[in-house]
Each structure stands twice: as C-alpha cells, then as structure tokens.
TrEMBL record:
The lineage of its organism: Bacteria, Pseudomonadati, Deferribacterota, Deferribacteres, Deferribacterales. It holds the Pfam family DUF494. This is DUF494 domain-containing protein.
Amino acid sequence: MDKIVIALNLIIDYIDTDEIVNEKDITDYLQNTGFDDYEIRQTLSILNFGVYDSPKAMRIFTVPEKNKITEKALQYLQKLNMAGILDFITLDEIIDKSLESSDQKIDVEQIKQIALYTLLEKKSYIFKNDYERDEEDYYIQ
C-alpha cells in the first residue's frame, strides 16, 4: 500500500504539470519511475480510468467554494475531473472536505493532499466492501 500512496502522490504532481493526461500517459510515467505492472494496475484502479467517460459538462463552483478555495486549486480540480480521474461524487467530497478544513484559503498543494486522502479512503472503502462480500460468499453453515 505504501508504494500505491507514493504512486498516487507522483501522479497528482504529474497531472499538475501535464496539459492533457490519459491512462497511457500515467502508465508510461509510472513505468519510467520504476513501478511494476501490479503496482500500476492497483494505482489506476483507484483513479477510476475506464469506469466512466470524461464528463460532458464542467462543474460550476459556488461563491462560498470560490471564497474558500483558490482559483488555481479549483482549476486543478476541474482538470482532475476532466481527465477522468475524479468523478463528480469524489469531486464533491474533496470540495466538502476543503470547505470543512481550516479557516485559511485552500491552495493547490492542500487540494492535492485532500484529493490523495479522499482517493485512498475511497479505495479502502471499496476494498473493505469487496472483502466482506467475498467472506459472505464463502460462508458455510
């Protein structure tokens, strides 16, 4: 799990520097960074590639969101959403956590951390539910 966290952190920074990002770009980047195929597959499973298509619409941010989150951080969130890394539900979760956080305005670096933790929480929740479902399938009375 530690390597997946590192990979996610690298991806979040990589997306910040690249204009158009897709699954192949990220896969190539991780391979060049030294991750093996298993670690890359695990990391990509967290990012939802192939689960849904890029949205046909952009999210409109509210005044309180614009007051709490910097413009660059909002643009970064839109970029993650448009790249297919964040679905609208996860995007809203990140925004909600940002609004609930400190009294200071949230910048790009803070948004990256909130996004990373939100994606990891989501993966942990999915893994837990899949594991519990598997246990039920094999339960013998």
